[in-house]
Amino acid sequence: MNKAEILIIDDEPQIQKLLQINLESNDYKVVQARTAKEGILMAANHPPDLIILDIGLPDKSGHEVLSELRHWYAKPVIILSVLDNEKDIVSALDTGATDYLTKPFRTGELLARIRAAIRRSQTAVNASVVTANELEIDLVARIVKRNNEIVKLTATEYNLLALFAKNESKVLTHQYILKEVWGYGYQTETQYLRVFVGSLRKKIEENPNNPQHLITESGVGYRFQ
Amino acid sequence: MNKAEILIIDDEPQIQKLLQINLESNDYKVVQARTAKEGILMAANHPPDLIILDIGLPDKSGHEVLSELRHWYAKPVIILSVLDNEKDIVSALDTGATDYLTKPFRTGELLARIRAAIRRSQTAVNASVVTANELEIDLVARIVKRNNEIVKLTATEYNLLALFAKNESKVLTHQYILKEVWGYGYQTETQYLRVFVGSLRKKIEENPNNPQHLITESGVGYRFQ
DNA sequence: CTTATTTTTTATAAAATCTTTATAGAATCT
DNA sequence: AGATTCTATAAAGATTTTATAAAAAATAAG
Question: Given CB atoms, is B206 within the 8 Å cutoff of chain A?
């Protein structure tokens, strides 16, 4: 397989250097931009396999860059931010960020998230069957199996799980989930979500009190892995 | 049912070993070949239920092997490749590959795809007789037997059951069923469906109150198994 | 033309699912 | 540490969906 190409949009030289060294030693091809304008231009000229985007850029906020990118760029965008600000995170994810990390971050974690994001973007398109350990979700047949046995799910439970499966290991915000599963206008009914995540966990988790698949991201949403 | 037999054509010993262990522990019988020539010979002498074919073989490209196989071998062929190359994928699928996976692959996913492929090849279009335990549905002769006795069905009942049989273990939505059996414009007549599913159950189920074949998927549709 | 069969409608009881409320516990913030 | 917000869970109530019988209408058969 060819080296995956990663574009880093960040104005801090230390971060740039750190990322470059780590990514290159992990066999990624690295391309760098220091401003929003430069980054967008580079992404447009030669679309990379993944973009790492800093929120605090000199010329334009990362949010704006993201929303601009998302008009035509479908591959993963991972957000970096010095702020551990919930509103910021939620807004970024809602705009279409694949993942987010707060500085300072652990390099190992970043690499893992990059791997996960790239893997997903490669298999997502044509994979009709999503598997996660003992779980198997067939998005065409609309059937969920656990240890090869069919799990009986209600329509809403299935829709919810399918949404998670399509966005494996990506944090989905409450708002986004509610909009996708219940429809526009239900975005404030967070309690629905809690109830249904609860019943899903009872059906798909080994131990629902210590979920391994449906992970709570407090204040933000949920993540499926 | 007998163990399904899988032929692996791959020259990398690690992959061979990995596949062998995983497949055998999932109750498949595994046969192995290390070259294209050997693989074709083995497939011809004793046709397996599925072939896993590596694209990068020492003596001949997997594409050639595939096209040669397809002259007489109709069962699933899953391609493995180190290249995540769209042109390659398209070309393989066009030559008749059932599925395509890039190395490194997740074992769970491969197993799921194998299951899906085998299931499809057993029931899909090419099968004119679908059997489910004591039931036998001959789609060419339009005859349904239960414990070897002919079941008398009306035209609509038969059309409905045939649709289910062609889509075994797949959830079909009300809308879809209505469109297929009654035609475009009947998609809201869900009650028809209930009535006919009811009468079908009386004819094909051991105990119509606890159906084993025609399963209700509340809020969505029905599933035949 | 009459009768039998099949399909469509209507009505209603039962089952399943979804929504809402209440409350206790966990996580996060100040 | 204490206050506040967020999360999990159970359970009651409301709503939707499903199953079934049976009548009415349409179609086919004799």
Answer: no
